[in-house]
Amino acid sequence: MKIVIYTVIVSLVAGFLLGLLLGLFKKIFHVAVDERIQKIRDALSGANCGGCGYAGCDSFAEAVSKGEAPADGCVAGGAECAKKINAIMGGSGGESKPRVAFLACAGEKSCALDKGTYIGIKTCSASQLVSNGTKKCAFGCIGFGDCVKACPFGALSMGENGLPVIDRDKCVACGKCSKACPKGLFKVLGKDDKGAIAVCSNRSDNKPQIKKDCSVGCFKCGICTKKCPEGAVTLVNGLPEIDRSKCTACGECVKACPDKVLKLL
User: Fold this and answer.
1) What is the pTM for the complete model shown?
2) CB atoms within 10 A of CB 126
3) Which of 73, 135, 188, 258 is the most exposed, having the fewest neighbouring CB atoms within 10 Å of its CB?
């Protein structure tokens, strides 16, 4: 009986001492956690899409709390999310500009010629690795839909013409499609942006070959730069680039383009 009593007493004393030591260690090695992190995390969309440039929502929330990421960095959450985070951080604003992805290629099946019959793995990345794509145009859309599979919001689908179609209402410009596209054909624009844009990414300087490979390819004639009354159009790597601070969406460059490469947003 005494053994049992001694055992209980020793156990209680040992437990008490262990508790004291744990409490002491907790105070010594305590790392303060910013309470704002969880609040910011709760305000986010929870999509974990990576559009903010971080590995996920947790990483982004921590970065915001440290001042390393902007309050409006959650593209999936948009302006409402930005306002909530600004309130948590004690700031103001939150006017996040809605953005959307844009495909800079018009080389559909009827325009862009195939090199031949492709019998490899039906993905854009595999085709790019094996044969630099299936099309004669080395810069155009391959058309196997890697971007569609990568989109976490269901904003992309493959059209019958062989090009991905973007649902502007679902797209949040997270950038997943751009990362998945081996040709780098997706750009990010503001949903309210106005003006001209080039629907071609062919940077080749072999002008005769451009039209042989794709009937809607940019021929690098430069007429668009001459016709723009505001001087908003310049050629960069042979392709029209529009300065949106100068562009008035007059459409003169679009009318002048013989290849119909430019279009108004």
Assistant:
1) 0.74
2) 16
3) 258
